[in-house]
Specification:
There is one protein chain. The protein is α+β, with helices and mostly antiparallel strands. It has a five-stranded mixed β-sheet. It is globular and about 40 Å long. Bound molecules: FE2/S2 (inorganic) cluster.
């Protein structure tokens, strides 16, 4: 059909988004991200030294990140398990989240976060 754009759904391209990440006070790095993976998985895939001992099961609380204030309202709400683990972190604040409990979406393109010192591999 002339004049109508054709989208071939069998050849969907994976869109690359960005995460702006600081590792406890270091300079901000812009890292590539794709939809569907958790922030923890994306940090690992980009060689950020996150502990994440339990691999994303929300039991270890060693994937502690702080989210820039302007992004907080755009994240999914904190679930019961995540809230319980955050309560176990003495330094956690209102901007704290567990990176394994947040899935990357297009709405989070450009998300700014800081990996906290309690969750950095030594
Ligand atoms: S990786 Fe263990 S709570 Fe997130």
């Amino acid at each position: 059909m002339q004049g109508v754009a054709h989208i071939d759904s069998t050849e969907e391209e994976e869109r690359i988004f960005a995460l702006r990440v600081r590792v406890a006070g270091s300079k901000t790095a812009v890292l590539p991200a794709i939809e569907g993976l958790s922030l923890m998985e994306l940090l690992r895939a980009n060689d950020v030294p996150i502990v994440a001992e339990c691999g994303g099961a929300a039991v270890c609380a060693s994937c502690h990140v702080r989210i820039a204030a302007r992004w907080l309202d755009q994240l999914p709400p904190v679930g019961d398990e995540e809230a319980a683990r955050l309560d176990d972190i003495p330094t956690a604040g209102d901007d704290s989240r567990l990176a394994c409990q947040i899935r990357m979406t297009a709405d989070l393109d450009g998300l700014e976060l800081e990996l906290q010192s309690d969750s950095i591999k030594s």
